[in-house]
Amino acid sequence: MVTHSNTQELPPIDEPDKHHKPSRATQRWKETYEAATVASVGIEMGLAVVVGWFIGYTLDNWLGTAPYLMLLWLGFGVAAGFRGLWRVAKRAQKKDEANGDSGESNP
Fold it and tell me: Is 80 exposed, middle or buried (0-12, 13-18, 19+ CB in 10 A)?
């Protein structure tokens, strides 16, 4: 690449500009998105449990194995709900680490 002394080389597009501060609207949008993600954890956990229960209940009625498959699939639903919670917690932890927040409070 040929550069001249009077030209300024621009950073690559995928490299964020360190001097650019995001606008207030962009910041609010990010905060709203993060709040919605955290709020959806409860819905995700509830739906996972209900879907697991429903699958187990339906299989038990079809196969006549009550309550074993219902309990098994209910366990799968609970595990899926906690997996979603774990995923959101890990994502938040990575975001905090990227922002330089160690998670410890200073008195």
Answer: middle
Element counts in the chain: helices (H) and strands (E) = 2, 0
Q: At what angle do helices 68-98 and 24-63 cross, to 10 degrees?
A: 160
Q: Where are the domains of the chain?
A: 25-95
In tens, the pLDDT along 90-106 reads: 988 998 888 876 555 54
Distances (CA, A) of 107 to 93, 99, 104: 21, 20, 10
Residue with the two structure tokens 């490299």: 15
Tokens representing 21 are 């501060």
Percent of the chain surpassing pLDDT 70: 75
C-alpha–C-alpha distance, residues 19 and 87, integer Å:
32
